[in-house]
Amino acid sequence: xxxxKVYTLHSVILIILMVMTLFGAKAYQQALLYEDATTxxxxxxxxxEQAMLQLEKFATSILGTIVGDERQVNxxxxxxxxxxxxxxxxxxxxxxMYLLGAVILSYFLLSLRAFTFFGSIAAIITLILGLISPxxxxxxxxxxxxxxxxxxxxxxxxxxxxxxKLFDSGDVIVALVILLFSVVVPSLKVLALLFVxxxxxxxxxxxxxxxxxxxxxxxxxxxxxxxxxLVYLTANKGExxxxxxxxxxxxxxxxxxVSMILSLAADKMLHKLKA
Length: 275
What we know:
Elements: H1 2-43, H2 47-63, H3 69-105, H4 112-132, E1 134-144, E2 148-158, H5 159-169, H6 172-198, H7 203-216, H8 221-234, E3 240-245, H9 247-274
Antiparallel strand pairs: 1-2, 1-3
């Protein structure tokens, strides 16, 4: 009977992981739709568009007719599309986090080995989403006399895409630091935890534990690097920069928290094994 309960519980956790992955994929898709809608909206706020709008307002004041209805309707349509995509991305991200929390709470129901195994899978999913999803949206704009607020450039940035761009632009040192502490170290850490949960009786597992204990000391460095990363990306050369945090940052920070909990669980598991 106990085995049946264990298998049932494991099946429930697997279903949670699959649904969690589905919600994560939905959040990622909606984040991309939000990017597309924002790109379309920014195009309507460029210098040429603003100049046309001012001319239309001038014509309206002279002729007493409404000229800019179509432009305004288009702007409103894109704004609604953008708002809906943002709300959906945030909603699916919340659902993902609820299920991730359920996996973490399974600590009180599963064995340490099973918890470390399933938790590591959840951490891998969370990390992947944190790396590929946009984490920051930056809009550079300036005030132009007679035209008002003009958008000069817009970019939505994710960790992987930004690392590639930094390499391409010649900022190799910054790119390597972000690559090391935001991609390589987190990936090695979660794979080490997964390895330990599968091969915990192997002598090599203890060497792996020593390794992730060592890199565990750097657990907050990836958070620090991402913080520096955000500041670096929002830096500008005189124009005004507007930055908006996106769902990728929440996925990445969730990974950091989950990986620290899993490290403690794996350490406890191996100590019990030694005893």
